[in-house]
Amino acid sequence: MAVLNPDLSIDTIADPDTPPATGLICVGYLTSSVHQLRDRLGPPQLGLAPDCVTDAWILRTPVGAAHLWAGTAAMAEELDAERRWLILATTDGIRPWGYGVLPWVYKAVHGSTAAFPTAALPHFTEATLYGFGHAYLDYLYLRTDAESRRRDQLDRTAPDFPTHLRRLQQLNTMLLQLAEALHDYEWAHAGQADRAEWARMQRPTPNEGLRYWKARSRWLYPSTTGPHDGDPDLPGRLRRLADTARDNRDSLLEIAPERDLVLHDEHEQTLRALADIPIPGMDALQFPRA
Fold first, then answer.
1. In the 8-state DSSP scheme, what is residue 6?
2. Cα–Cα separations (whole angstroms), residue 141 to 145, 156, 187, 221
3. pLDDT, tens digit, for every residue of 97-107?
4. Is the backbone of residue 158 left (phi > 0), alpha (psi -120 to 50) or beta?
5. Left if phi > 0, otherwise alpha if psi is -120 to 50, otherwise beta: which for 146?
6. DSSP 151
7. What's the pTM?
8. How far is CA 183 from CA 23, 102, 212, 220, in A?
């Protein structure tokens, strides 16, 4: 079993008492080889796949456990071949907003969240762009929280110390921009009763981590203090954020040479992938409210 921590470190642990997976639903898929999964997540766990025969991996992410299963066993000559792996999760591992394990699985296996929107299964009507957007928002929040917690443990004499400090600011900016885009989208599709409820929202108290942060950022949203029409075009908004990140890349680097460009580029690519994802918008389904 592999454990992916919020700081993106991966621990491989032996857990022979883990029972076979039951009550799982398919939340997406990824493409990888057996060798790549072994390199990133350690050896597979036998007997845990739905058929109790083929190899499967369990990845415990900060938002729940994900099971990777190909459905058929790979022959010795196929270990380097790219295969499609189903990503299975229990309902406890799925955020109310969407499929929260997906960005973590892609980061663990491929080293980037940029392709996680490709995990969408268009024929599953439960998947929406809004849900995927919130899955990425949760990811950014937990990454920001992890960077903040490890700040005092950093070696101030290390050459990359300024980059570590700048990374926290980058993540926080990404987080706020995405939250605003999702809030604009939700407000644009909210009815009068929902808008009135939102406007009456009381200042939250800091006691529940991610849930508090979402409530607080929603409370600070401009619609609580005045009229606001929102933005019904979520793909367009995400694409504009990606374009801004691309166009300002060089100037931002001149201002802050210690900026984490890998993180910057990964975020731009993830936003662009979300904008181009071929799944419905929030208006296609009834959605849960915060």
1. T
2. 6, 24, 21, 17
3. 448 899 999 99
4. beta
5. alpha
6. G
7. 0.85
8. 32, 21, 15, 11
